Records
---
Amino acid sequence: MGYVEKNLIADEHVLYKTSYHWIIFFSLKSILSLFIIPILKRATDQFAVTNKRIIIKTGMVSRKIVELNISKLESVNVKQSIIGRLFGYGAIEFTGTGGTKETFVNIAHPTEFKKKVQEIQS
């Protein structure tokens, strides 16, 4: 049971959950760290859509937690390169009311994530 499941509120359930794409293993940073950094990132970082909010937790020692209520979300944008489209990864950018922006890169299946958010909004 991860962070998301432990922090659900009353009548809330997870609709979609994803992680980093395996492409994070193909970088100079991952090679120099003997693949320890991407393994830890995939094991500890969580991206989830619930019926009430979006929950994103990154980091193991120092954490960044982003929780956006669906009602306070203005837009969800997906950015994918050609290679990203071929292999199924990309960046997700959230814009909340007030213009707050959060971007997360190398996410597996970003279009599915966006689709789940849009299904809840409607």
---
Amino acid sequence: MHALTEKDVRSSFANASLRERNSLTLPTGFDDLDWDARDFLAWRDPKLAPLGYVVAILDDRPVGILLRVSDQPTRTRPQCSWCEDVTLPNDVVFFSAKRSGQAGRRGDTVGTLVCARYECPRNVRKLPPLAYPGFDREAARERRIVALRENVVNFVRDIRDSD
């Protein structure tokens, strides 16, 4: 992911009002982020616990999505739809995001199950267990990294391209 400025991040949100963009709290250590090591930028708002943000690069431009955590807890231990990790050491929550444009103004939303603190990049980089003799664990890890990027980009694109 290429480096973003505060202005880039704030102006990237496809489904947030100007007031929401201006009031968001950037992630801790934003100025020191290692952008080359990032698949996407995601964080929870430290001042407003139910809010989360994700910024991905689509067509060489940052696109941000404002997410809200559901008030209702999940009944079972769900699987994250971004990293698809089945041995998660962390919580997965249901996030909803209003669509951009006219669809969002009508109240249309999309929901997804995601790691509560966006631990997905760390999860997909764990070396998977040996499934069978000769199993290429490194190739499996690389496939999971690529799948994570595609899952996040597809989610962001779905929100942005709703009209």
